[in-house]
Predict the structure.
Amino acid sequence: MAIEKGHRFAIDFDEAFPQGLVMVGEVIPDNEFQSREDRAAGRPVRQRIDEATGKRQWRAAVTDPGETKAKRASFEVTFLADVQPVPTTSEALPGMRPVELEGLTAEPRVGGQGEFKYQTYVFRATGFKAAAGKPSRSASATGDSKAA
């Protein structure tokens, strides 16, 4: 029995990212490419739809603090949801927030060019986990400043 190309493996967030993830920026729509001719003709921008689930695609830039290679530490996560996912944590620094993903899947891919190829993954998620169990660094920092 062979695994077909494009198979998405379900994976637990803590297993994939033991040190967590930091989202940089905001969640934005993953729009289809629009040519100059399309823009000139006034055609509307279309958001991508996932072929496997039929849900709208959203994307966000994230950084994995546990990755040792700088080139592979930052990447984009694709969210599959009917409405724009909203992070449940507060910002640790302006534009940066620790996040946990739910409904995470990983699809193996080949990255790099020429003789410098390596295995990488396309990560997809359905949304953000609630931040009930783990206090964010900004919350603990504000608690310390109140005590001082």
